[in-house]
TrEMBL record:
Keywords: Cytoplasm, DNA-binding, Repeat, Transcription, Transcription regulation. Belongs to the MraZ family. The lineage of its organism: Bacteria, Bacteria division CPR3. Residues 5-47, 76-119 form the SpoVT-AbrB domain. It comes from candidate division CPR3 bacterium. SUPFAM superfamilies: AbrB/MazE/MraZ-like. Gene3D superfamilies: Transcriptional regulator MraZ domain. This is Transcriptional regulator MraZ.
Length: 143
């Protein structure tokens, strides 16, 4: 399980250290891909396999299903986690999320999100301001 919000830096060699408490659950290899809201999603291999299976079962006849599958699957890359808990950030994903030096590594239960620090702060401020309205809409989902 991944929870919490951490600030890290991408080094000159395009490596990003992951929070020590996340490393055990990830193991030695993970999958990073394009996420929603212009962030990146990082999954353990076990969680990635579950998600990839569901994505592969989406109907090919629906354009939205094809597009979402392409975004997630074609945008994915295996990453090795070195002995210092770092991953190498692929350029195309770094560009997609417009990551600069400072990033936020956020745990969201079964995945990790990686955000540009400024974008995260803007997103978080807006979400915190709208939390009452969001909670009201989530009632419809039984939350």
């Amino acid at each position: 399980m991944f929870i919490g919000e951490y600030t890290y830096s991408i080094d000159a060699k395009k490596r990003l250290a992951l929070p020590p408490k996340f490393r055990k659950s990830l193991g030695e290899q993970a999958v990073i891909t394009r996420g929603l809201d212009q962030c990146l999603f990082l999954y353990s291999m076990k969680e990635w396999e579950k998600l990839a299976q569901k994505l592969s079962e989406l109907p090919l006849s629906q354009a939205d299903a094809r597009g979402f599958g392409r975004l997630m699957l074609a945008g994915a890359m295996d990453v090795n986690i070195d002995n210092l808990g770092r991953i190498l950030m692929p350029d195309y994903l770094k560009n997609y999320a417009t990551l600069k030096k400072k990033v936020i590594v956020a745990g969201l239960y079964n995945r990790i999100e990686i955000w540009d620090e400024a974008k995260w702060n803007t997103y978080k401020e807006k979400t915190e301001k709208d939390v009452g309205d969001i909670a009201e809409r989530l009632k419809e989902l039984g939350i």
